[in-house]
Amino acid sequence: MRAQIAAANWKMNLTLQQGEALLDDLSKATDNLDNHRVVIFAVPSPYLAMAQEKIKGKTNVFIAAQNVYNKKSGAFTGEISVEMLASLGIQWVVLGHSERREYFNETNALLAEKVNLVLEFNQQPIFCCGEPLEIREKGTQNDYVATQLQESLCHLSAEQLQKVVIAYEPIWAIGTGKTATSEQAQEMHAFIRAELAKKYGNEVADNITILYGGSVKAANAKEIFGMPDVDGGLVGGASLVGSEFATIISSLK
């Protein structure tokens, strides 16, 4: 079975003390995970060392950075390098989140550079893709997402690609009042897998974990994760509530 992942994206939320308390609250929920189940906490950069310490000794539980710069080092005040993350023992990095694309103008080409650096330092990217509302309303979401994949991932070798986790974010269904159905999630996940199969073959594509990032909550996680091509979720707001995220973890296949 493909790895089934519950990834928490704290975004720019919580104080250090609140973050510590949340990880303590979720300690039991992240004990004794099945071999194919993985839990990842993408925490704000000031909390990376704290979070690494909190999960010490746990199996299949990891800390991720929410972003990284596209240069190895240099005069880039305020940025974080892959080498810095590696020195902390961070093994996962979220790349291309819709908020990074929208607010910080991250392009597909820039994200290809970040993907390359993360892989060079033996870290694993959670690569985000997905379409905004105007694209969904035009019905061109497949072409839009295919371009994101082609321009940021499809230069990789098959071996490199298998270290990437993809997270599909239907941006039009996040905070808009519109709701994506589990069937719509499945439709896009199946399309993404088919696109990867065109270049890398079915065997490689079938082994890529694809997460859903469209307002996953305790109430809908079981249904969404039950779709055949949905391998877990990249969870925002619900990951900030211990009981909610514990239920989401337990909803993994």
UniProtKB/TrEMBL annotation:
It catalyses: D-glyceraldehyde 3-phosphate = dihydroxyacetone phosphate. The keyword Cytoplasm applies. It is found in: Cytoplasm. Its EC number is 5.3.1.1. One of its GO terms (biological process) is glycolytic process. GO terms for cellular component: cytosol. InterPro entries: Aldolase_TIM, TIM_sf, TrioseP_Isoase_bac/euk, Triosephosphate_isomerase, Triosephosphate_isomerase_AS. Substrate binds at residues 9-11, 175, 215, 236-237. The keyword Cytoplasm applies. PROSITE patterns: TIM_1, TIM_2. Keywords: Cytoplasm, Gluconeogenesis, Glycolysis, Isomerase. GO terms for molecular function: triose-phosphate isomerase activity. Pfam families: TIM. Pathway: Carbohydrate biosynthesis; gluconeogenesis; Carbohydrate degradation; glycolysis; D-glyceraldehyde 3-phosphate from glycerone phosphate: step 1/1. The active site is at residues 97, 169. Homodimer. Belongs to the triosephosphate isomerase family. Involved in the gluconeogenesis. Catalyzes stereospecifically the conversion of dihydroxyacetone phosphate (DHAP) to D-glyceraldehyde-3-phosphate (G3P). NCBIfam families: tim. This is Triosephosphate isomerase. It comes from Deminuibacter soli. The lineage of its organism: Bacteria, Pseudomonadati, Bacteroidota, Chitinophagia, Chitinophagales.
